[in-house]
Structures are given as structure tokens and as C-alpha cells.
Amino acid sequence: MSNSNSVQVIAVTGGKGGIGKSNVSINLALGLAAMGRRVVVLDADLGLANIDVLLGITSNKNLSDVLSGECGLREVMVNGPGGIKVVPASSGTQKMVSLSPLEHAGLINAFSEISGDLDVLIVDTAAGISDGVISFLRAAQEILVVVVDEPTSITDSYALIKLLNRDYGIHRFRVLANMVKTQQEGRHLYSKLVKVTDRFLDVALQYVGSIPFDEAVKKSVQRQRAVLDAYPRAKASLAYKSLAQKADSWPLPSSPRGHLEFFVERLLQA
Q1: What phi and psi values does residue 111 have, to the nearest 5 degrees?
Q2: What is the pTM assigned to this prediction?
Q3: Which SUPFAM superfamilies match (predicted)?
């Protein structure tokens, strides 16, 4: 990550809920922070925020205050474990779920305020394929699709990839298998997804590994801590460290792509 004009933006998604996206976002952030990166996590589940709950942190302000003009993004950010920063969203606020395209653009552009303060932005998306989810995915540089061993996970991930490929010309996706019993199970999940994407879509999927099913993750959630923080030697924690090392080598953006994206002004400067 030597290009000082670029911020790596990784969106963590997966189509359906309950597959551990937020845990992936948090622990990937901690893994990158441990490598010396300045990392910010954006809770992009605008109506049902949970990053702050998972980490046991509180904030007096959130993204709805930024959108209303009451404060800037820096005033919303709170300190998380391991030196990461968190941008919390609101919970149970209907208007945040149904933002207009202009309002989504305003939120994405608001991050320009902190463009000199971070190396990596991790965007934890909501479940589903709403316009809001798609806006955040299109504005990211990397899309990390989380899959689990459930038929609905594969079908929902395929639907998400199909939509982004067919309607928005996105061709590259990273795939992470979560809560697997063995590494072979992770590769098998990836193969299932590739089987349908190769047949019907013009996309390139890259398997970035798996996170094992680990009771330590459940215990850390109950303690409102990241597993990498609470149980650094757990199987899941070691897998997250490996994922962070891989993510750190992903190429940085070098030029704007011609649509709304995070930190576009730094790419223009470059």
C-alpha cells in the first residue's frame, strides 16, 4: 500500500443475513490494523446497525447526524479495539433505510473529509440487494463476498454478483467461505459458486480462503469483543490474520472508474 494517493476500500457483502459479514469486517479490520494500517470500519447497514453492539462501544452521534448536516464525519467516528475507527450507523431509523440516490452520494462523498486519515476503509453492507447496498458496493474498490454452507447463501450471492455484473459491469469479486468445518468444505463452497457464475456470467472470482467454525467466535460476540482481540490464538483468529495479509496485497486503485466512488478526489489528484 505504497500509493499515498489511494485508499483501499473493501466492501464486505453476501446477499443474505446471518452469515457473519459483520464479524468478518471487524476482524479483517483488526488484522490490517495489526500490520500498521490505519483502518476505518463503516457500518453500512443504515437501518439496523450492529458494529457498535458487537464491539461494545457507544456513540452519541451516527451517520444520520452527518446526513442531516448536524456534524461532520470526524465527529461521528469512535475508537474501536486495536486502533481501528468505527463510523456507526443508526438503528431502527426508517428514513435511513430509504435514502435517495442523492443522499447516498452525499454520504459517500462525506468520506472525502477523512481521506488523509486512513489507509483502508472497510464497508460492512446490509443484507439483500437494495439500492443502498448496491451504491456502497459500486463505490468500493474490492468486493468481498462471504458465503456459508447453506443453499440460500450460494443463490443469494449469485444473485448479487449477477446484478452487479449485468447492470453495472463489475467483473471481479473475492470470495470468502465462513464458518466452515474444514478447508475442503470452503473450497467446495467456492466451487459451487464458480460452477454457476462460469456458466452464466462474465466474471472473475478469486477464492481468498476460509474462516473455520469456532466456538471462540460465539464467545467473543457474547463478550462484545472481536475474536482477534479476545482470543488471538483461536483458529478463527489465525484465519483472519491470514486473510488480512492477503487483503494487504490487493492492488490499490490508480484512477477513477467514471462513477460514484469513495475518495475519488485522491484518485484525481494522482
Answers
A1: -70, -15
A2: 0.94
A3: P-loop containing nucleoside triphosphate hydrolases
